[in-house]
Amino acid sequence: MSIESLVAQYGLAALFAGAALEGEAAVIAGGLLAHQGLLSLPGAAAAAAAGSFLADQGWFAFGRHFRDQRWVVKLRGTAAFARAQAQLERHPRRFLFAFRFLYGLRTVSPIAVGTTNISQRQFLAINFVAAIIWAVIFTGIGYVFGDAVEEFVGRLRHDARLWWIVGGVVAAGLIVAAIHWWRGRRGQ
Q1: Element (H, E) at 109
Q2: Are 162 and 169 in contact, with CB atoms under 8 Å apart?
Q3: Whether 187 and 129 share a structural domain
Q4: Domain identity same for 180 and 137
Q5: For the chain, counts of helices (H) and of strands (E)
Q6: d(CA 36, CA 30)
Q7: In terms of residue numbers, what domain contains 172?
Q8: Cα angle: 131, vertex 67, 84; to 5 degrees
Q9: Are residues 183 and 92 in the same domain?
């Protein structure tokens, strides 16, 4: 099934879920689809903001209500959780605003915040504003660079060497991700 048919079938709901589950790549793709006229740009940004906001509110609530449960206690022992808590202690409001922009801390941060004494009202307000700004930035990136992406994809259709380059970049990314995952598991 092609991306165009997925969007035609599920539209902004797919972008909402992608922003909640995956993050930047899905939102940038939403901007690209808006550039192609398959989605409205304001609709794509709103769906991305809502997906991100609601997912983070859910993770915050999970951390708040299950802070003493085995899964959260185990998560507290990870390096990412420790980094999130250290940043939160140093710059609480700034961290609440910026965690969604920090690689490796996006999902663990709202859980970490939920285990602290930061009020739900404060998290909700800052998370709301940050989700909107994040969604506008990343859908905007997809929208603004839509022509370049379309040109690059058009070249891929005609040049087999570019497929090898793309394949090499994807393979390198997977190797780096596997090494990062392995080191993280070894450090636990």
Answers
A1: helix 108-114
A2: no
A3: no
A4: no
A5: 11, 0
A6: 10
A7: 147-188
A8: 50
A9: no
Indicate the pTM of the whole model: 0.74
Distance from C-alpha of 120 to C-alpha of 110, rounded to nearest angstrom? 11
DSSP states of 42-74: HHHHHHHHHHHHHHHHHHHHHHHHSTTSHHHHH
Contact 77, 137 (CB under 8 A): no
Is the distance from CB of 41 to CB of 143 less than 8 angstroms?
yes
Cα separation of 112 and 40, whole Å? 35
Q: What percent of the chain has pLDDT over 70?
A: 82
Q: Give CA separation, 102 vs 23, 96, 152, 156, 179, in Å.
A: 11, 11, 28, 31, 19
Which amino acid, 171?
A
Q: What is the pLDDT of residue 165?
A: 67
